[in-house]
Design brief:
About 30% of the residues lie in helices and about 20% in strands. By secondary structure, it is an alpha/beta fold.
């Protein structure tokens, strides 16, 4: 699967995708991550990507022409791939696991990362396939949402995780513990003996499954 990310800050992604699961997935050929510098698609000597908004108001808006050129250049490469263009926006659909699973069925996702006061609205109207929001809050740009969506989507690609069964959507969510079984901890000013539940120490996997299921039902 290919992720093409259009941004004016390409170095933001360097450390995250060069570590851990992303590094391994790239080395194995499971993922290809294409960071696209929007400034490359400007035509003036100052590499200007933004301008003031019509109608006045604070801040600057990302210009449409460089984004259109960047998206078109990506669409021309590997044209037979099933692709989808996504813009990160506070007005977009709130991202969840179902959306991640749906997006994982594409061959290539093209992410547009806004900055400043946002992206010229004509990009949302005529260029992108959908707008996505990662939550009911505002960030300074689309780079962190791009990383969030990219990781959530990648988890549905076989080989990205060590075991596909590690998906929360498959195994569910429940408390987990590891050694040691007993720890002395502070709870405020008091010391408490923090224990691992007995059922997890007895080796009866049927009972463990029941315990985990009961917890999930309570939640």
């Amino acid at each position: 699967m290919v992720f093409s990310i259009i941004t004016i800050f390409p170095k933001i992604f360097d450390s995250y995708i060069s570590e851990s699961l992303f590094k391994r997935a790239i080395e194995k050929g499971i993922l290809k991550i294409n960071i696209v510098n929007l400034r490359v698609f400007t035509k003036d000597k100052h590499r200007k990507v933004d301008d003031s908004p019509f109608g006045g108001g604070p801040g600057m808006v990302l210009k449409p022409e460089p984004i259109i050129s960047a998206v078109n250049s990506i669409l021309k490469v590997r044209p037979k791939l099933k692709k989808r263009v996504v813009l990160f926006s506070t007005r977009g659909k709130v991202f969840n696991s179902n959306i991640a699973k749906r997006l994982s069925r594409y061959d290539e996702l093209i992410f547009i990362c806004g900055r400043y006061e946002g992206v010229d609205e004509r990009i949302a109207k005529y260029v992108v396939d959908e707008e996505i929001s990662v939550g009911d809050f505002v960030l300074s740009g689309g780079e962190l949402p791009a990383l969030t969506v990219m990781e959530a989507v990648s988890r549905f690609k076989h080989g990205f995780l060590g075991k596909f069964e590690s998906l929360e959507e498959i195994k569910g969510s429940y408390p987990v513990y590891t050694r040691p079984a007993l720890i002395t901890m502070k709870n405020g000013k008091k010391k408490v003996l923090a224990k691992v539940p007995k059922v997890l120490l007895q080796g009866n996997h049927k009972n463990i499954d029941i315990w985990r299921s009961n917890f999930k039902e309570k939640k």
